[in-house]
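Full entry
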Amino acid sequence: MNLLRTCLTALVCVTMAGLPEDASAAGLARDYTLKLKTVSFRGTRNSCLEPTLLYEGIPLFTVNTTLLPTFTDAPLRNLPNGDQEGRVKAPFNGSLLNWGQNNFFFHVSTTGNGDYCTHSEDTVDLVSGDLSRRLFYITRNGQPFHGVAPLTMDLSEINPVLSRSIAELEDAVKAELYRLRQLSDQLDWARQQATQLEALQAELKQLLNRPLDSITSAELEALLARYSAVPSSVRSRLVQMLADLQASMDELRAEIDRINAIFRQHMQDLDGYVMPQPGGLDVHDPDTFEPDLGDDAVDEVEVPDVSQGDDFDETQDPYAAFAQQTLTELNKTLTNGVVTDRQGFQSMVRLWRFNQDVFERGLKSRVGVSLEEWGAFHSAQLDVLTFIRVFMGEGDWFHDSPVRENTKALVAYLEQRPESAAQAQALKNNLNLWYDDPPRTFEQKLVLDTLDALFGGYRSLEEGAASEDPSIFATLGNILEGAVVATKAVVGIGLGFTPAGDFIDLCEVVTGKELCNPWGDDLTVGERMLSGAGLVVGSGTFWRTVGTAVSAGAVLPIGKLSALLDNIKGLTKGEKEDLLVRLSEKAVTRVDGMTSDQILKLLNWSLKDADLNTLAKRLTGPQLIALSQFTMEAKFLARMSETTRDLVKQKGTAVKSLQSVYKRTADEVRAELVGKGFGRPVRDSSGNITGWLNQPFTRDGQEFWMHPDHSLVRITERTLDVPYPHLKKEITNLPGTYDISNVLVKVTDNNKIVPSTPGTDVKDVLVDWYCEVTSVSKQHIIDKEYELHDVMERIWAINTHLKL
């Protein structure tokens, strides 16, 4: 059984965080506290009651006509026998008390219709300093409790300062009257003063028999003016008493304001979701995305005028009448106890909330308002609030809303950001239209998953993502605008038809559904990564933080994207965008752990873009690098004759020692060749080499740089087959020769030995290696992917014709 909590029957209970729960600061009147201790016999009698407040600030007590907010006094205590003890308190200022008869009302029940299984003992004490009175001692066995405890209280206890001032004034008047009466038979002025003092006595008696809330400052000023000629011994006491009485009236007003502030917070929780949509929202289709229901679409409710200061008549209670009309209209939005017209419900609450503010301002503007009228106002307000809270809970969300707690937290977060507050209100308004609708459940999930990611995006700002990519601010704003449209579309035309731009892109990344359509194609990891890069390409931190906020299905693409962006963060935003376009959806998933320089070298120097994407179907980043670096050199050597193998391993030291020509100019390479002894041979008439010149032999547009150790380097401006300046590194059968018939092998940029010409050896070795590292059978390649042989030949050509 769910744990049940103590609360006023059908009471609207809301969290009162940050409100002043203690009564007014020390003043003339005493501060009092009603303290409730409840022991629920959970261990000894299987009571189902958990003795805690459902929400802070609920009124369990009424003093005369004033409802008192109640707060937790001590943590729930588990007793050794399994029973539980809860303590709550309702602090208030003594200015609420009558000088004489007072009534303390106590109302307690168990929520969730749990009274039938409640077995508890409740004690209520009235406490002020060292004074304590027991008001209630009850046991509940399967029923709620509603009762009243009358208590007569003297002014000397409630407000000792005012009581002393009154007593001192009375004593002064009596003493002066006694003196004057001794003289009155002989002096007319003595008789006149005695008559004035008797009149003062009568007025004071009448005044002090009235409740504080009925006395005005103007009355006190007028009284003081009428008796300006009384003897100084009396006037000084009169001035002090009236000052204390005025201070007591101010305390009463402050106490009413304190209680009003708490009950106002109950309603302020309802302010958020009833705000209108933000202006300027481009939804592209005004016929589809209509504005929210306005006030003119709400049935009229007659609003009473409470600004006039007529005496309050409980038989003609305007607040109760307005509350009843409001409840009637709210009931029209229900079907079988469920809110089906959610927009109408929210609009009606907006109207009610506005008028409650009007009522409160009207009451505060009047010179004097009785506690009875304030009590009627609060009681009527709670009647409506009670009804609303049957359907809405903390944070103003419908109880049956499918919206997640994390989404609610996102809305609350956005409401605190000035630049997004309006969109947050609209987002909440739209989300509050949702209900558990099976045909829409999958669409709702897509949107909620995307909103989780959006929350992560905003949190990335705290991690410094904007310093990596300042455009993130604008992107988040665009996604949020799209979220407002999408959340409305879920209850309208459908998410798949939503013109929501960046929000749809983020949804693709998070959910893997094309166009965020529940019936759309499933996107590959690479496609999801590219959608993400289209939103934010400048910050790995952004996506890493988003990755902590999403469900498991989105972790892989987002994790890969954040790692990739971290690895290429040295590039400009434009360079990153170009790089990702070249990688395409296959290769982008295969470059884990590779730096931007390694990736660009693959694309710009080692592989054609199309070939990279073909190979990336199965090869990882490190494997792609291994292929471009021809780490399978031993397989090539194994296919050569022993004579050739021995020669190329022993000779060609000079060409094998050259630095990488990647990103180097032809002149830089020529300088290195000269330094390592490359040039051309000098021959005698018999053709024998007699010396060497540090100059190349030039023929047909090529430079031939030879070396005595059989090394050969050819530099060519461009050819039909290789339309860019390039260099070939080779080892020849004889030193000082350059004709192709003497070339035994070629040497790659990282100085690996490969065959000198394309052919079976090149294709077979590279395809064999590919099959080994990917576990794909060679027969499958022959039968299904034979074009891979041509890819491998192109790789050989690119890596033996080195671009300058």
